[in-house]
Write a structure and sequence with these properties.
The protein has 178 residues and is mostly helical. It contains 5 helices and no strands. The radius of gyration is 33 Å and the shape is elongated.
Length: 178
């Protein structure tokens, strides 16, 4: 028996219909037939438009310079409080890291983290000086370490003021970082 070329499933003069074949499932995220598209998705065939404020900067390769996002007032207060009380655990490292990371994003955090960092540097200088005095006076100079109680009080006062959103200036501070 010979095959009859005229009995093919689709005549050769009709072009194939575009779109998915009936046995293929629809693409992930596309609406099912008869259902409206989701509110957060564009209609099929529509280009996706970026929403303002959803990214962390310009798209890669756009040539636009990176602009850091400003901090909210709540975030500013949080980071300044951490810059004031972080030295209880990490000495001058906490305000240094906070200042380096957030100085371009908030003037308030820049000012208060520098103030806390300068105060911690002042305390390091004072502790070295007290250590030398203690060696020279055969240990009698260790009484000067009681001044660090005042330093703890100043750090707590600074954290409370920063929590209110107000700046704080330490009464005894060598401002090496301007």
């Amino acid at each position: 028996m010979s095959e009859n070329p005229q009995q093919s499933p689709q005549p050769p003069d009709q072009p194939q219909q575009p779109g998915p074949s009936p046995q293929q499932p629809p693409a992930y995220g596309s609406p099912q037939p008869g259902q409206p598209p989701h509110q957060d998705q564009p209609a099929p065939g529509q280009p996706v438009q970026p929403q303002p404020g959803t990214g962390y900067g310009p798209p890669y390769g756009s040539g636009a310079p990176y602009q850091p996002q400003p901090l909210t007032p709540s975030d500013e207060r949080t980071w300044t409080i951490l810059a004031q009380v972080g030295p209880f655990i990490l000495s001058f490292i906490a305000p240094l890291v906070i200042w380096l990371v957030f100085k371009d994003r908030s003037r308030f955090v820049d000012q208060e983290a520098k103030e806390a960092l300068n105060f911690q540097i002042t305390l390091v200088i004072a502790s070295v000086a007290i250590g030398i005095i203690s060696l020279v006076t055969f240990g009698f100079g260790t009484i000067l370490y009681l001044a660090f109680i005042a330093a703890v009080v100043f750090m707590i006062l600074a954290a409370v003021e920063n929590g209110k959103g107000a700046p704080y200036r330490y009464p005894v501070n060598i401002r090496l970082i301007k």
